[in-house]
Amino acid sequence: MQDTLAVQIVSRSWKRLWRSAWRGGVDALLPPQCMLCTAQVDEPGRLCLDCWPSVGFIADPCCPTCGVPHAVPVPDGLVCGACLKDTPPFARARAAFVYGGGGRDLVLRFKRGDRTDLAPGLAALMRQAGAPLLTECDMILPVPLHRWRLWRRRFNQSALLARALGGVTGKPVLLDLLQRRRATRSLGRLNRAARRRELAGAIAVDPGQAAAIRGRRLLLVDDVFTTGATVNACCRALLRAGAAEVTVLTLARVVRAEQSAI
Ligand SMILES: [Zn+2]
Ligand SMILES: [Zn+2]
């Protein structure tokens, strides 16, 4: 049974690889297209004027700590209720857009549609949202995938974004400093305490590389900030290993109604 499953997964991976390579070859011959539709755009990695408004880009006012957008105008620097109640382990978190509408479509195209070619365009959107974080950090690193999931998906979407951000900023990218020691269940349906239990000890710093981050300011990159449980577990591991500060930059973030209302 396990062997059959493994064969199916490998076969599916190869099909996806060929499809992706074929599309990459075809795309090189065609004028650049919008990241969300087939409209022609000036450069690869852009959105057309019709698709742009469908993406909920996050702008001020937002919580200075976790970056959740406030629903109504508030005084500068107002921290959200969640951060006041339970201070996150990261110094600041920012995301390019809300996970919903065109933003959700972008994430799913990139993550599940084999559109790894979107990484530079998506990283450019993250760069706009997290410019101060990128300027102030010493190093960039992605949230790790467990090797079993990496094998099935063939790529770590967070690592692709981290690498693209490293390319445009010149900051070093530590691709395998954080490691998943074991696979974890999907966290979406678990409550806060259960999520924390599920992640306890699952993410760790490679002891052989720990010296590289001692006293350094790190920028952690992920595709979607959902509950914050995974990035929080990564941040705690990094701080325990001696990092001076960790900030978080994601492509999208889930914003629940109760979060955006102050
Ligand atoms: Zn479009
Ligand atoms: Zn907050």
Structure commentary:
Pfam families: DZR_2 (PF18912), Pribosyltran (PF00156). InterPro entries: ComF/GntX_DNA_util-trans, DZR_2, PRTase-like, PRTase_dom. The chain has ten helices and six strands, in the order H-H-E-H-H-H-E-H-H-E-H-E-E-H-E-H. A four-stranded parallel β-sheet has the order 1-6-5-2. It has a two-stranded antiparallel sheet with strand order 3-4. The model has no long low-confidence stretch (mean pLDDT 87). The chain has one domain: Rossmann fold (3-Layer(aba) Sandwich). The protein has 262 residues and is of the alpha/beta class.
- CATH architecture heading: 3-Layer(aba) Sandwich
Distinct ligands, ions and cofactors found in the model: zinc ion
Distance between the termini: 51 Å
Q: Return the structural class.
A: alpha/beta
Roughly what percent helix? 40-55%
Average pLDDT works out at: 87
- Write down the overall geometry: globular
**Radius of gyration based on Cα positions:** 19 Å
- Strand segment count: 6
Strand order of the largest sheet: 1-6-5-2
| Main pleated sheet | 4 strands, parallel
Low-pLDDT segments? none
Annotated CATH topology? Rossmann fold
Q: Helical region count?
A: 10
- Proportion of residues in extended strands: 5-15%
The CATH class, by name, is Alpha Beta
Give the SSE order as H and E letters. Answer: HHEHHHEHHEHEEHEH
Please tell me the total number of domains: 1
Pfam families: DZR_2, Pribosyltran
Domain Double zinc ribbon: 26-84
Organism: Ferrovibrio terrae
Protein name: ComF family protein
